[in-house]
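Researcher: I'm preparing a figure for a lab meeting and need a structural model of a single chain. I don't have an experimental structure, so a prediction will have to do for now. The sequence is pasted below. Please return the structure as tokens so I can convert it later.
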Amino acid sequence: MEWGSESAAVRRHRVGGERREGPAAAPPPEREARAQEPLVDGCGGGGGGRTRKRSPGGSGGASRGAGTGLSEARAALGLAFYLLALRTLVQLSLQQLVLRGAPGHRGEFDALQARDYLEHITSIGPRTTGSPENEILTVHYLLEQIKLIEVQSNSLHKISVDVQRPTGSFSIDFLGGFTSYYDNITNVVVKLEPRDGAQHAVLANCHFDSVANSPGASDDAVSCSVMLEVLHVLSTSSEALHHAVIFLFNGAEENVLQASHGFITQHPWASLIRAFINLEAAGVGGKELVFQTGPENPWLVQAYVSAAKHPFASVVAQEVFQSGIIPSDTDFRIYRDFGNIPGIDLAFIENGYIYHTKYDTADRILTDSIQRAGDNILAVLKHLATSDMLAAASKYRHGNMVFFDVLGLFVIAYPSRIGSIINYMVVMGVVLYLGKKLLQPKHKTVFISLIGQSLSWYNHFYVSVCLYGTATVAKIIFMHTLAKRFYYMNANDQYLGEVFFDISLFVHCCFLVTLTYQGLCSAFISAVWVAFPLLTKLCVHKDFKQHGAQGKFIAFYLLGMFVPYIYALYLIWAVFEMFTPILGRSGSEIPPDVVLASILAGCTMILSSYFINFIYLAKSTKKTMLTLTLVCAITFLLVCSGTFFPYSSNPANPKPKRVFLQHMTRTFHDLEGNAVKRDSGIWINGFDYTGISHITPHIPEINDSIRAHCEENAPLCGFPWYLPVHFLIRKNWYLPAPEVSPRNPAHFRLISKEQTPWDSIKLTFEATGPSHMSFYVRAHKGSTLSQWSLGNGTPVTSKGGDYFVFYSHGLQASAWQFWIEVQVSEEHPEGMVTVAIAAHYLSGEDKRSPQLDALKEKFPDWTFPSAWVCTYDLFVF
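Model: Understood. Here is the structure written out token by token.
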């Protein structure tokens, strides 16, 4: 709506007020009283008083609406203490991990025993796929413990153990899309079933491998430890199971979900599975969050709601995760997409700052955190293994659930179709409430006229609140104060307060309609933010009409807002708990301050939406704006001066900067197979937006003069990317260093080149090398990849148009042979395709070099440099 038309509307009311001034024009007292009455009486909402001329000496809202002016100090302090109290309640609920006494009784989960498993597994060290630590030591330990559990098991149960070593390939649209190939990786599979056998099973999944250079306590050794103890408790129970429980300890999840694919597509027990529980981590300890369920199969959510002792679940997390905003994935995707099996995905989300670092150790995971996870997994597995629904899961497949926990005390869950009905009922309530007001001619025109230093917070989160949150609040107050003083200067304060409450209600109602129409279960949040404020408004209106914005009104108003605001703060905690650490590893292209400021501004606008009316009810806002501006300005100056360093090496709460160091030797070959270029150096990638700016003062040789340059004619710029994250990290550095000479060098050769009957060229290759290799392909102009022997046969491009294949193998793997077919539409002298292979040495002696070790020693203690040796060879065909 244009400002000119709004001014005219306000001007008409001002003229009307002027004409009524003076003794001759004064209305009778009873008529004046009627003019000031709201549109809805009793416990119903109303529309405040009529507009009138402002008294000459008035300032702001001090003289407007006599007797209704709200003290600025009372309003500001009241709101501050209110939000602080809610935040305290949320914090207390999050710190309360378990809700009962000491564990360890027979038939119950024993966290101390699970911790013993955890400490033994992590003492082995980093467990990358293909390393002896992963394939031999960890597997032997798991088999030993399973054997001991089998000896102690009740005769009612039967335990079967299988060590699977699958080989396979698949394509996935994660990280822009790529293809994965695995050979002879390891799965340890245990089936617990009734003595007479079972036709149906529920799967529990964890992974015992870890990323390079991390002990992987939370990701995911603690989940495997929990599963071992759950297996022990169930196997010694005197209660018979109706169905089997399959425990999969998979050894190649960090290789982008390879082991789960090998199990669900090749293992004979996979056909028994009707549902699964996947245990994961995106942080270290805390509460394990149910962040994915389904697809559909609402009975699984009901099973969790019925059985879990310490529930922590949110359909909001599910819809956020499945939107792709979070650059991560779990085995849940494999079981869903390749096994067509429904499940529940759980993950620890606290303290993601040390996820996938050397700090992910067993001592950082609280015993209570293990206890609550064990209690929940044991209860849910037992419930599913004795449920009649598991055998007939297909009958209960259709439908989605709205589910959310209430401060970790219990879970509310109901079908999404019921949620839609509730949502539209709430919308109808708002339509009736606002419609009744809009249909009054004397208020229509007024109502319509009114509708008109990076990562400094990474180690000090409240810096972001003081910098961005206060700026947002100050701007909101400033804009509305200006509107109140100069634009709506002749409108009654009470009426303006009510109108802006109604506007906020209308906006939330629009979100509710949109989310419900889109079929999103998260619409229940908007329903809460419409229903409770509407009920509050209807119930406090009578007191507000009679006494204005006094203490009683404020107390009841804040009490009525308790449910939406405490749940909003609960969700906001989860958002920042997950996203703040992620912004420290989201690459060099995404400005984290812009992202965090946007999230904070959005949260602030939501939280302030039903308090905007207080700006119009308050006598003044000068002191509040001044305080907020001072806090923001002082924080800004401190940030600019470098007071808040982004990273921390504090042993109790480290927040390291992640840096990848790859000591590599590159060799480029021409069409005749001759080496035309060879270089060697340490390739450096900083995984956050600050690049190396904080590192250069400590290591002067790492500076912008050694920025790596893209090889335009090579796939993925001619660098040995471990995963296809080249589009996230475009700034990297290349420090010259001597050549590397691994004891187990990679070999790559063309076995055959043949013409197919359909006029394409089939190239067959063979590669041998370490447990992890990356294969890259770029088709030249006039050529296309039509098919290959990988995945489902259809080549999948990565971002940028090149092809990326991630390869890994366990111990004693044979040579990797594969073929690609190239369709050539026109011949080119530079060939038809460029291929390259990178060999990554992530374990053993080949992983290190003297130059790499020397450089790592120079890095400050607030960094986590993850380093390995690699080679890169490029060929043209």
